[in-house]
Amino acid sequence: MITIQDLYNIAGNKIASEAQKAIIRNNFPQHIAEQMCNAIDGQERVEHFQRLLREYNEWMQNQQRQQEAVQRFLREYYH
User: Does 9 have pLDDT greater than 80?
Assistant: First the structure.
């Protein structure tokens, strides 16, 4: 589950990435800066996708535990 701290971290990382890209754009030729900024954006997308996968995995584990609990209850109740 995403916490408030996770949201703060996401926002802080986004601000840091944008600042880093601004520095890159001011210090490198446009064609090089564009590639470096694209790499930063790509890394950010990867991190968000990994977070999504972790959240989905946690959700699936919770679903499995709930299903097992219901099945256990039904076996004990109707046995």
Answer: yes
